[in-house]
């Protein structure tokens, strides 16, 4: 026992001296290797989008192997998302994930920090002061419905109106992310409000095994369904939509069209305050990593 204790203590000291460093797009392959080792899959487009638009942080073993990651994405100075918290299996339970999340929170300054947690990660975030604000299910399947035909393809001149609407709903300036998303997405569509403005917008982007429909921002549930239908009906293969538990009608509508609920996650916010914005018009995130 004494020998085992000294070995564990030595490992703990060693881990504390493993420095956090910034990640760049040059670390993409290492991030994909780590994700694949934890059965997350090699989501290359997603990782590239996050690393290019956010602040990646990682911890590297003495042999040069990346063993822990996270990404911080800022939305102006009001909110910030923490995502991609991963630790290599051989480095589990040594505090590396906590160190990285605390570092990201410090870097976020006074912004309201939020994240989306799996059941495995939730206890760690609760220990760090995050609280659950809601739950969601990943709906995946081949969409069996028809297009609504009430939306149109977004044009470059729509981007300002999209960003303005998004800022009202998200409660933060996400224009930099949306500008990049316009090139990242397979398609971006809008619904007009009849007064020359935009009542909603949504996009779809290709991941490894499916196409994610998100974000979905809309004035009402009917507009949200129309946007999803117009995107999903044009998508070959399975689509994925993240639906919050407080949207049971949307979940049932997707289920009836072959897009079934799967993995569940928890939305979490650091501290006591709520996320800003108008969540009544928020129907699906860009991706779970970004809100």
UniProtKB/TrEMBL annotation:
Q: Which residues form the signal peptide?
A: none
| One Gene Ontology molecular-function label | acyltransferase activity, transferring groups other than amino-acyl groups
Q: Which PROSITE patterns match?
A: GNAT
* InterPro entries xref list: Acyl/Acetyltrans_Enzymes, Acyl_CoA_acyltransferase, GNAT_dom, YitH/HolE_GNAT
N-acetyltransferase domain: from which residue to which, for each copy?
18-162
Name the UniProt key words of this record, in alphabetical order: Transferase
What is this protein's record name? N-acetyltransferase GCN5
Q: Which organism is it from?
A: Planomonospora sphaerica
């Amino acid at each position: 026992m004494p020998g085992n204790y000294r070995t564990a203590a030595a490992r703990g000291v060693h881990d504390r001296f493993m420095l956090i460093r910034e990640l760049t797009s040059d670390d993409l392959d290492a991030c994909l290797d780590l994700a694949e080792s934890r059965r997350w899959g090699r989501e290359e487009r997603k990782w590239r989008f996050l690393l290019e638009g956010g602040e990646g942080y990682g911890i590297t073993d003495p042999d040069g192997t990346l063993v822990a990651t996270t990404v911080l994405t800022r939305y102006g100075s009001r909110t910030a998302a923490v995502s991609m918290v991963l630790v290599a299996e051989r480095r589990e339970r040594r505090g590396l994930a906590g160190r990285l999340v605390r570092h990201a929170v410090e870097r976020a300054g006074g912004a309201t920090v939020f994240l989306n947690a799996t059941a495995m990660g939730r206890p760690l975030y609760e220990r760090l002061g995050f609280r659950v604000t809601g739950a969601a299910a990943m709906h995946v399947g081949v969409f069996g419905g028809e297009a609504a035909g009430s939306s149109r393809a977004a044009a470059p001149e729509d981007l300002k109106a999209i960003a303005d609407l998004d800022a009202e709903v998200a409660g933060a300036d996400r224009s930099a992310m949306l500008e990049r998303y316009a090139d990242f997405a397979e398609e971006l569509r809008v619904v007009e409000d009849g007064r020359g403005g935009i009542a909603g917008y949504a996009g779809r982007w290709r991941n490894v095994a499916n196409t994610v429909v998100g974000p979905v921002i809309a004035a009402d549930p009917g507009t949200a369904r129309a946007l999803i239908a117009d995107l999903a009906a044009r998508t070959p293969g399975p689509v994925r939509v993240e639906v919050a538990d407080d949207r049971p009608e949307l979940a049932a509508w997707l289920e009836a069209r072959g897009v079934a609920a799967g993995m569940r996650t928890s939305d979490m916010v650091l501290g006591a305050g709520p996320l800003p914005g108008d969540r009544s018009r928020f129907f699906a995130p860009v991706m779970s990593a970004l809100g």
